[in-house]
Amino acid sequence: MKTKSMLVAAALSLAPGLLNAQFDFTLFDKSFQIHSFASEGFAYSNDNNYLTMNTSQGSFAMTDGGVNISTQLTDKFRVGAQVYDSNVGQLGKWHPTLDWATADYRFKDWFGIRGGKVKTVMGLYNDTQDLAFLQTFALLPQSMYPLDMRSSTIAHEGGDIYGEVPLKRWGGLSYTAYAGQRQDSLYGGYPYLLHTFGISIQSYGGLVVGQDLRWRTPLKGLLVGASHMDEEITGTGTVELSVTHGPSFQGITPYWEKSNKDQTNQVYGQYTIGNLRVDTEYRRYWRDQEVFNGTAEVTTDVRTWYIAGAYRVSRRLELGSYYSRFSDNWRSTVPGQVEAPNQSDPSRHLYDKVVTARVDLTRYWNVKVEGHFMDGWAGTFYPDGFYQAANPNGIAPKTNMILVRTGWNF
Amino acid sequence: MKHPQFFLFATVAGLCAVVTASAADVKIIANESVGAASISADELKGVFLATKTSLSDGSHVVPVLEKGGPAHEAFLKDYLGKTDSALETYYRSLVFTGKASMPKTLGADAEVVAYVAKTKGAIGYVSADAATEGVKTLEMK
Prior knowledge:
The complex is a heterodimer.
Chain A: H1 2-18, E1 23-27, E2 30-45, E3 59-72, E4 77-88, E5 97-108, E6 111-119, E7 155-166, E8 172-183, H2 189-195, E9 199-216, E10 222-240, H3 241-245, E11 252-273, E12 276-291, E13 296-312, E14 317-332, E15 349-362, E16 365-375, E17 398-409
Antiparallel strand pairs in A: 1-2, 2-3, 2-17, 3-4, 4-5, 5-6, 6-7, 7-8, 8-9, 9-10, 10-11, 11-12, 12-13, 13-14, 14-15, 15-16, 16-17
Chain B: H1 4-24, E1 26-30, E2 38-39, H2 41-48, E3 62-66, H3 70-80, H4 84-95, E4 104-106, H5 109-118, E5 122-127, E6 136-140
Parallel strand pairs in B: 2-6, 3-4, 3-5
Antiparallel strand pairs in B: 1-5, 1-6
């Protein structure tokens, strides 16, 4: 796998020089556009392995990419689709997915509908979190946009209504409301975590209903917004009895878990002035779920926030920094799962201080160098970047990591 | 320095000239199919940020950009409030999430005028002194 990643990295390094424009063509009098992107990362940490990569030894296993095609069929009707693939440590594992595939009809500027597999609008960056070339940072704040949990929020199969409502001197409102089904990747962080408990997930997903409202305020450059999402999630698969009940029990039986309440609330703001951009977001995620075929219950209350700043120094160089906080309160009736009493315990939080330099080598090719200084690891019963399976010798309370990521798009 | 007040006045006047000249250096042009004779700054911003696809008279419009140059810089600064890289990032975020296509981008005033002249609903911007035969110039409300 390492050789494969090295080859991809080499190909990515060559590609930008060969391709530097979007690809357009006309078919049946309709203009089609094809765009694509890819990125390759190298992460090296002083101790713990992060995001299932072998970062303590230095890891190139951080590759992703996508390609899309779209066309405007009429003035109001457009269609398109994008395929996405990734390999990040034990996540993704080169299983391509249909990232989005939408038919979009805009009746008026203030009312449109889109259906199919739709990117979920939530907060500032949920729908663009994969697109590293858009971001200042090599990794977005993982408290808010965890790479290992991307498939749980990235898209839904269903429909959106959306629109823009001008408020004249009061700015303007953008709204999105959606409903559909989410279907998680079987190669994401949560299925990977459940393997620790002998559980092999075969299907994970369910109903998603949500709204996002954002206000371009009269103060030039200031955007504020709020998002809300309710979900009904069911997971099914199998469980190895020897793992859950001890070595004297053998065999594999069906497994299920489901959420009784699964809710996300998020507020955010962004201020841009000249070459400076400041982002901040707060999210509270509440989940009450039945696990192990209804024999146990786990409630999780995750609270996260970050503040980030980025300044474009020149056409080629952008500098950025953020402070990201993840903390959780949880209660479990699973035997042996006991929460540490204090939030200050490294198993109850994960704080990350980050500094980044982004260099735009060309209009379509960038390199980012980023330092992470992490405090805490937030436990092993929640998928938050640090996994017991990836750290079999235990997890140290602090982690420093350097990440170099190059990205290309056209 | 014999006349410091003069130099101070000249400097301030020069800065003001630079600041005020930018908006006047750009004119907004549209294809003859666009019914409106004028456009507001908010409408213009909406059209070029892909949140607005029609004007108040109902005309469907499609934005056309210049790749660079003084008119482009002035237009971004005065009407969109975004830097060139921020605008490009914005468009790409729409393209890669399936919400819009990348707008047509052309190299010079003459190319923009020629494209707008032949493309139904096209709306663009050029230098104030550019020849604009075959297109209509929209007044700013």
